[in-house]
UniProtKB/TrEMBL annotation:
<keyword id="KW-0862">Zinc</keyword>
<dbReference type="GO" id="GO:0043565">
    <property type="term" value="F:sequence-specific DNA binding"/>
</dbReference>
<dbReference type="Pfam" id="PF05485">
    <property type="entry name" value="THAP"/>
</dbReference>
<feature type="domain" description="THAP-type">
    <location>
        <begin position="1"/>
        <end position="84"/>
    </location>
</feature>
<feature type="region of interest" description="Disordered">
    <location>
        <begin position="80"/>
        <end position="107"/>
    </location>
</feature>
<dbReference type="GO" id="GO:0008270">
    <property type="term" value="F:zinc ion binding"/>
</dbReference>
<feature type="compositionally biased region" description="Basic and acidic residues">
    <location>
        <begin position="90"/>
        <end position="100"/>
    </location>
</feature>
<protein>
    <submittedName>
        <fullName>THAP domain-containing protein 3</fullName>
    </submittedName>
</protein>
<dbReference type="InterPro" id="IPR006612">
    <property type="entry name" value="THAP_Znf"/>
</dbReference>
<keyword id="KW-0238">DNA-binding</keyword>
<dbReference type="InterPro" id="IPR038441">
    <property type="entry name" value="THAP_Znf_sf"/>
</dbReference>
<keyword id="KW-0479">Metal-binding</keyword>
<keyword id="KW-0863">Zinc-finger</keyword>
<dbReference type="InterPro" id="IPR026516">
    <property type="entry name" value="THAP1/10"/>
</dbReference>
Length: 107
């Protein structure tokens, strides 16, 4: 089963989330495009493996071409992921301040 490499995207982690999704491997034949994908997904130090994928949710509809008989989606050459409607769980967490020890000598 494929898992999307976009941080915060849960597609592929549960079977239900894979319905109607297509997963695309990083285009290793085109190193410059791989670097563009890495920058686009905001993971500067990420190094994809041959099994790393992105799900179809991160590509515009205009990036797809459909196979004639199977209606299966394929990416057009040079397509770049541009859709990232995922809330970052780290940014939505509340920040809790720690209490400073009291320095007053009130009695």
């Amino acid at each position: 089963m494929s898992i999307c490499s976009v941080l915060g995207c849960n597609n592929g982690k549960r079977k239900e989330s894979c319905r109607a999704k297509t997963f695309f491997r990083f285009p290793f034949r085109y190193p410059a495009l791989v670097e563009t994908w890495i920058k686009a997904i905001g993971r500067e130090h990420f190094r994809p493996t041959p099994s790393s994928t992105l799900c179809s949710d991160h590509f515009e509809e205009s990036c797809f071409v459909y196979q004639q008989f199977t209606n299966r989606r394929q990416l057009k050459p040079g397509s770049i992921p541009t859709i990232f409607n995922i809330s970052d769980p780290k940014s939505t967490r509340e920040v809790h301040k720690t209490r400073e020890p009291s320095t007053s000598n009130e009695t």
